Structures are given as structure tokens and as C-alpha cells.
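User: Last request for today: this protein with heme C, please.
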Amino acid sequence: MAKKVVGLIVGLVLFIGLPLFIKGLTNNKLSIGYNKGYMPDQPIPFSHQLHAGENKIACQYCHVGTEEVRHAGVPSVNICMNCHLVVKAGSPHIQKLTEYYTSGKSVPWKKVHLLPDHVKFNHQAHVLAGKQCQECHGPVENMETVYQHSDLSMGWCVNCHRQPENNASVNCGVCHY
Ligand code: HEC
Ligand code: HEC
Ligand code: HEC
Ligand code: HEC
Ligand code: HEC
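Assistant: Here's the final one, the structure of the complex with heme C:
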């Protein structure tokens, strides 16, 4: 009898718990792009505060061509090695970085921002219109670890497009495929 009860309880826990657990996993994946504050752990603890803040390295020194391409992109290891062949070469983090470099691999940085596929966005139009990185990404130069500052919702995009001085379209077809 007691065994049956235990069996029933274990069964119930699995029956209710397992779907919830799976939902939790998929929710985590789906929430990228909508998750204001999202701050994944990175394979190497890269600090924007140290590089863009204290050392005043320009955003576009690393995020090359933001004004020309759709994706700003994250820098290749080559750019890091312009300095780190020498700077702090003895640090364990820089040694890890150097291993990626010498083996010709890229660092598997985790994406922080990601819009759904049905949305068109390009940096070029925004940067050419004079928008600063910080208007959308927040004070990155103060961030030890980069996180998603804006919610990237449709309302967020449309609100800014509606400002008369921006002279930007709110037609569905401008932002959607
Ligand atoms: C008008 C708002 C806006 C401005 C201005 C802006 N960004 Fe972005 N940025 C975004 C959005 C939205 C995404 C997500 C794009 C996607 O998932 O397709 C993004 C993504 C990125 C990414 C991730 C790689 C990618 O392209 O998906 C980097 C890096 C980045 N931005 C850097 C910058 C830098 C550097 C500047 C300034 C030169 C800048 N951004 C200006 C809104 C902006
Ligand atoms: C223009 C030069 C320059 C470039 C390019 C550069 N860094 Fe740095 N980095 C520095 C300086 C300066 C420090 C601080 C060194 C110190 O604390 O004495 C630093 C520190 C670091 C540290 C901390 C090391 C430690 O253990 O204290 C890491 C990690 C790091 N950089 C990673 C990177 C990565 C990854 C890239 C490429 C995306 C990169 N850096 C590109 C100049 C640079
Ligand atoms: C020394 C190189 C370097 C400089 C300078 C730099 N970044 Fe980055 N940036 C990186 C690297 C490497 C990553 C990927 C790792 C991470 O997310 O921390 C990144 C990631 C980002 C992301 C998140 C991309 C994503 O995955 O969605 C944004 C946004 C961004 N940077 C904006 C900026 C802005 C704005 C500036 C200037 C204030 C700047 N960066 C300066 C190297 C740099
Ligand atoms: C901070 C204000 C601001 C935000 C936030 C913003 N935009 Fe824009 N957007 C602009 C401006 C300004 C223009 C340029 C208008 C012009 O000069 O043509 C523009 C233009 C565009 C264009 C037209 C591009 C082209 O090639 O002509 C698209 C598409 C676009 N934005 C999509 C988006 C999407 C999607 C988002 C949200 C993820 C977004 N924007 C968020 C200000 C903004
Ligand atoms: C300035 C850019 C922009 C414009 C203009 C725009 N959208 Fe969107 N839309 C987005 C972004 C970004 C998302 C994804 C984020 C979200 O779901 O809020 C989105 C999401 C959506 C979704 C999916 C919502 C969901 O829950 O998955 C629908 C449907 C949609 N838009 C319809 C429209 C229609 C209809 C129009 C015209 C009246 C329009 N959009 C105009 C940027 C835009």
C-alpha cells in the first residue's frame, strides 16, 4: 500500500514536473530578444567598462563597420591581439584568448541581443541618421558585463520612429518581411 502511494506521488511529480521543466528550458531560449537585462556569462570575462570606459577605445574600433552593415558584429580575436600580444600577456584570461588566436578559432561569445527573424533591422540607417550606440544599448562604457538595456519590443521601435524629428516610417513593411 505504502509503495503504491509513493509510486503515485513520484508519478504525479514527473507528470506535472517534467512538462514544466521542459517549458522552462524552451522559455529560456525564446526569451532572448525580449529579455531586458539579459546578461549571459561570457567565455572570457571581457569588460566594456575597462576597454571602452577607462581605456576610451572607440566602439567602432572593435565593432567594425557598424555604419555600413546590417549586423554590428563582435570583433575577431585578431583585433584583441593588436594589444594583447603584449598587454597582460601573462594573465590566464589572455592566455585563453591567445589559445583561440593561435588555433585559428573564434571566441564563442554568447549573443546578448537577438530580434525575431520576421523583423528587419539594420545598424547602417540608424548610425547614419546620427543615433548614438548608447541611445539603444545604454551606457555600455560603464558595463562590466554587457546586458540588454532596451526591451527591443515593437513599441520601443515605433515610439522612436514616431518622434517627428526622426522622420522615420511606421509602415509595417519597413520593419517586417
Ligand atoms: C536604433 C537602435 C540602435 C543603435 C543606435 C545601435 N544599435 Fe546595436 N543593436 C540594436 C538592435 C535592435 C540589435 C539586435 C539586432 C538583431 O538581432 O538583428 C543590435 C545588435 C547589436 C550588436 C550585436 C550584433 C548584431 O549586430 O546583431 C552589436 C555588437 C551592436 N548592436 C553594437 C552597436 C554599436 C557599436 C552601435 C553604435 C555604433 C550600435 N549598436 C547602435 C539597436 C541599435
Ligand atoms: C587597444 C588595446 C586593446 C584591445 C584592442 C583589447 N584590449 Fe583587452 N585590455 C587592454 C588594456 C589596456 C587592459 C588593462 C590591462 C591592465 O589591467 O593593466 C585590458 C584588459 C583585458 C582583460 C583583463 C585581463 C586581466 O586578467 O586583468 C581581458 C580579459 C581583455 N582585456 C580581453 C580583451 C578581448 C577579448 C579583446 C578583443 C575583443 C581585447 N581585450 C582588446 C587593451 C586592449
Ligand atoms: C576592445 C573591443 C571592444 C570595444 C572597444 C567595444 N566592444 Fe562591444 N563587444 C566586444 C566584444 C568582444 C563583445 C562580445 C562579448 C560580450 O558580449 O561582452 C561585445 C559585445 C557588445 C554588445 C552585445 C552584442 C550582442 O551579443 O548582442 C554590444 C551592444 C556592444 N558590444 C556595444 C558596444 C558599444 C556601444 C561600445 C562603445 C561604447 C563597445 N561595444 C565597445 C568588444 C568591444
Ligand atoms: C532611437 C530611435 C530609434 C529606435 C529605438 C529605432 N529606430 Fe529605426 N530608425 C530611426 C531613424 C532616425 C531612422 C532613419 C530615418 C531616415 O532617415 O530614413 C530609422 C530607420 C529605420 C529603418 C529604415 C531603414 C532603411 O534602410 O531605410 C528600419 C527598417 C528601422 N529603422 C527599423 C527599426 C527597428 C526594427 C527597430 C527596433 C528593433 C528600430 N528601428 C528602432 C530611429 C530609431
Ligand atoms: C519600427 C519597426 C516596426 C514597425 C513599423 C512595425 N513593427 Fe511589428 N514588430 C517589430 C518588432 C521589433 C517586433 C518583435 C518584438 C515584439 O514582438 O514586440 C514586432 C512584432 C510584431 C508582431 C509579432 C508579435 C508577437 O507576439 O510575436 C506582429 C504580428 C507585428 N509586429 C505586426 C506589425 C504590424 C501589423 C505593423 C504595422 C501596423 C507593424 N508590426 C509595424 C517592429 C515593428
